[in-house]
């Protein structure tokens, strides 16, 4: 087994398009040759989009809160519905509370999923290190990582399923 120089410290910058042209080409070239770095790059790309999604879900409740507040303001400024508006405020407040609980629930799930991605990505990095340690210990370590990866991936799949269902209901 020959020693290959994996550009592990550059992969994150590669995914974020932060490398200069020659570095980017060098990583590109390495990814063509190296399957484990390709897998790691795919994990990093997925983690990046999960983080982006989580931030979008945080923005959503802010906009919805403004929308609900503007409806309350419209109603209470109309003298015909002003008295009705008094009863509408606590109802709208309750609805808003449920909405925030509901939306922040899915944000919490997103962050759980990101944590799992992070653990899986770290496991990839460790498997790189394990491949250069003595064969017996390396094999034991890789088996442990494999079992860990499988449990992590299946948990992540369950979480992603829950997230998709929630996303569907929101639209
Ligand atoms: Zn590599």
From TrEMBL:
Assigned keywords, A-Z: Membrane, Transmembrane, Transmembrane helix
Domain Putative zinc-finger: 9-38
InterPro entries per record: Anti_sigma_zinc_sf, Znf_put
Transmembrane segments: 80-104, 111-129, 135-155
Keyword Nucleotidyltransferase assigned: no
Pfam families in the record: zf-HC2 (PF13490)
UniProt record similarity statement: Belongs to the zinc-associated anti-sigma factor (ZAS) superfamily. Anti-sigma-W factor family.
Protein name as it appears in the record: Anti-sigma-W factor RsiW
């Amino acid at each position: 087994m020959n020693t290959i120089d994996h550009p592990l410290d550059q992969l994150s910058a590669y995914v974020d398009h932060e490398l200069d042209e020659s570095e980017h080409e060098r990583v590109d070239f390495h990814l063509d040759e190296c399957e484990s770095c390709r897998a790691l790059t795919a994990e990093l790309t997925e983690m990046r989009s999960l983080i982006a999604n989580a931030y979008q879900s945080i923005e959503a409740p802010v906009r919805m809160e403004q929308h609900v507040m503007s409806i309350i303001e419209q109603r209470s400024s109309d003298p015909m519905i002003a008295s009705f508006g008094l009863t509408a405020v606590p109802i709208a407040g309750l609805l808003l509370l449920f909405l925030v609980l509901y939306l922040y629930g899915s944000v919490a799930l997103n962050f759980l999923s990101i944590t799992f991605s992070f653990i899986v990505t770290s496991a990839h990095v460790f498997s790189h290190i394990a491949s250069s340690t003595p064969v017996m210990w390396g094999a034991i370590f890789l088996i442990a990582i494999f079992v860990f990866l499988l449990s992590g991936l299946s948990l992540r799949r369950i979480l992603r399923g829950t997230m998709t269902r929630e996303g569907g209901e929101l639209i």
